[in-house]
Specification:
Largest sheet: none
Shape: elongated
Number of strands: 0
Distance between the termini: 48 Å
Radius of gyration: 17 Å
Length: 98
Amino acid sequence: MSFMHLSFYSAFALSSLGLAFHRTHLISALLCLESMMLSMYIALSIWPIENQAPSFTLMPMLMLTFSACEAGAGLAMLVASTRTHGSDHLHNLNLLQC
C-alpha cells in the first residue's frame, strides 16, 4: 500500500470516527461528512489515472455533484434547525417531538 492510499484511507477513517464520536453540533457533523466526501473525491480522481481506465473519469464529477447537493441540503437543515430550535446542538433535535 502506497503512502497516497494510506493517507486517503486514514482521512476517511478519521472523518468517520469524528462523525461517530463528536456529535455535539450539527455543523461539526456536516464538516465530517464533507471531509469524507472530499477524501472519496480525491481517491476517485486518482484511481483512473493509476489504472489507466478512461471510462471512470466521469465518476469524480458525479461525486462532486452529489457532494454539493449534500452540502446545500445540510446547510438548509442547519439554518432551519437554528431558526426553530435556537441552536445547532444535536441533542435538541428529537424526531419524536416533531
